[in-house]
Every structure is written in C-alpha cells, then in structure tokens.
Amino acid sequence: MGLTLGVASAKVGHEVYFVDINPNVVSKLNRRISTFYEAGLQESLDSLFSNRQEIAFSTMAELFKSNNIRSAIYIISLGTPLGPDSKALLGPVEDVTREVAGYMTDQDLIILRSTVAVGTSRYLIEQVPTITNLSFCPERTIEGKALEELSTLPQIISGNSSKAEAMAQSYFSTITSSVIKAGTLETAELIKLASNSFRDLNFAFANLLALISQQHGVNVNELISLANFRYDRNKIALPGLVGGPCLEKDSYILSQSFEGKHTDLLLGARYLNEEFPSKAIEFISKHGASKTTKVLVCGAAFKGKPVTSDTRGSFVFEIVKGLLDIGIINTNITIFDPKVEEVIHGIQVVNDYLQIDHDFQYMIQLTNHDVFESQSFDDFVMSHCAKIVSFWPKNQALNKSSTKHLFLGGLKSTV
User: Domain 276-407 belongs to what topology?
Assistant: First the structure.
C-alpha cells in the first residue's frame, strides 16, 4: 500500500521517495521494477520516476544524506502481522515512528496507514514526544485496483490537532475529490478494522451456509442467489476462501481493541474461515491418496479478482502442506497461478496451464481468477483431472462432466 500511494502521489506532482529495510525492494525500485503485480503499477514506475536515479533508500539517514528535504509528509505503511498471542506486532511501527519523528519539524506531518489496534496513534504520540503532527488515515483500497481506488474512494483523515487535520486534508485533496474528517484518531482507526471485520463476518456466514447446504444436498449458490433476489435487506456473499494480509488479521486486532465478552462473535467467524480450506484435504484423504497421487493446485495468490501476485495470507501454503502431510510427495504437486512467481514448499509455481502435459487425480481451485472461468481451462481440467475440489463457482461445463466433485461454493453437492 505504500508503493501504490507513492505512485498516486507522484501522478499528481508530489516529489516522492521510498524507504524500506529490504535491500531487494530498494534495488528493484531504483531499477523501476515493481515488487508485485498491480494493474498499472509497472507502467507508472517507468513513466513517473524517469527524472531521478535514486527513488528508494534503506534508511531515513540515507534519504536525508542524498536529498535536501524541507517540509515533508511521512507516510508509514508497515504491515502489522500477528504475534503468537494473535495480537498485532506494533514494535516495528513504533520504531519507524520514532525514527521519522527525529527528523520532524512543526511543518511536517506523519500519516499512519498501518492497520493498528484502537488507541495506537494516541499511544505513539504519548511515547514519542518529538511527534509534531500525526494523522491516522485508514488504507481501504483493494489489491489489484489500488491505483484506481486511491483517486475514487473517499479518503478518511484524522489528526492530533487541527493543523494535522488540515495538512492531511490538503494532501489527500490532491489525490481524490472526496476527503472526510473523522472526529478522532480512534474513530479513524476503528473504521479500518470495522470494514474488514464486517467482510470477514459476512464471508464466514456464507461459508457456514455452504457447509450446512452440503449436509442437506442443497445447492448453496442457488440458495444465496434466490435469498438475495430482489430482497434488498439481504446482501449475503458467496462462499469461498477468505485470506489475504488484511482479512486474516483484522478481526483479531479489532477484538484486541475491546475489553468484553462478546469478541467471540468476531473470532468464531475468523476460526470458521481459517478452517474452511481443510475440507479440500479431508475430501482427498477420504477418496484415497498416496505418495504417487498427482494434484493440481490452482491459485497461489490470496485472491483472483482483481488480479494480484500477493501470496500473503494465501491458503496455498496450508493446502500444499496438508497434501504433504497425507503422504503426497511434492514432485507430484503442481501449483498454477498466472501472476505468482514463487517457490512454495519447494514447488515452483507454473504461470501457464497449457505448459502442463500430465494428468492429475485431483484439481483444487483456491481462487476465482478469470482464467479459471474460461472454457479452455474447463476443457483442460476435464481432460486432465479426475476429481475436482473447488471453493468457487464454476462454468456449467465442469458440472456436466462425469468426474467427482466437491463444490464448496460451487454448483454441485459433495459426491
């Protein structure tokens, strides 16, 4: 989210620099190579930063040594992964905030975009006395359409003072026409957590419906479609895997922000979504698997629409580990994803299914990428895969085939 906001800022004329402790990220950005796939990102890096040799640095000290920077807006967008206690690890955010605040004047602004527990911004202000102006502005773009949404979505701002609010308002007004002020820092922090936790709850309800429908031989897609049809009070989502760097943790962070007994509503939904992919391993184990069983896993990024190459929070790691745990050797597991170029549990991801020339006892579809909904992919699966495990709706062609299926969220009941 830092890179996309930086690019969006450069598009409207701001002078943008990036700081990252990962030397590979710094090296790639200085060669104008995007570190992940995002629609329009590579083209923007090529066109917007051609007038400077260095745009990325490993430390703030390196940045200031190389450039004469007067007043500045410092945007902190570090990830906040969960620790062993399922609470957000905020140490890196605090460390970076201290480092940045050491360079601040009263004309500078820190914008915190990282997802944090409610009260974190206020805590940082108390712990770091050199902070002058701080605004929490929640990041709400969807991966794959981030550059588009930065200019179309309302941007929510907050601040520790009216000056901080005014500075944040002025900055985001150059990027989008809609800037909304939250009453407090805590309100803005809670908006981000509420948005993602609501989606997590909604998906969990759909996944529960899928499991109930499976038990009763009901087509869950038909159920949800008819329940929603011209009935505006219903907005039931379709079932599917719920991962990614935000949804996998924001319910935990929101529950961390509340002292009370009702957080089990959030955590129960999260646990259901985390357990959902185990149904694929159970299906394969039930129907028979050995070290010679060949499995095609489709979808390594955490989602397929909009397209991304991000594997953070993807269930591909859990699925492949589950296959290995039931005795299938990794040389018999193939992972296909159009955009991901990684090695997962020793398996290099394949980017073109037409390069795959052998048959599989099982195909597992993890995401809803457009490629997986094409007729040519259906033809490939029908000719190369005996049994299908899908967490997403599929084209009618697969459902007319004679193969055995487990469609958790698809058009067919368990066989």
Answer: Rossmann fold (3.40.50)
Cis check: omega of the bond before 129, within 30 degrees of 0: no
Residues in the chain with pLDDT < 50? 409-415
Q: Evaluate whether 2-184 and 276-407 have a shared fold.
A: yes
Asked if 406 and 284 touch (Cβ cutoff 8 Å), the reply is no
Q: Does domain 2-184 have CATH number 3.40.50.720?
A: yes
Write out pLDDT tens, residues 1-14.
899 999 999 999 99
Q: pTM score > 0.85 for this model?
A: yes
**Domain spans in the chain, listed from the N-terminal domain onward:** 2-184, 276-407
Rounded CA-CA distance 319/334 in Å is 12
> Would you state the pLDDT for residue 401?
53
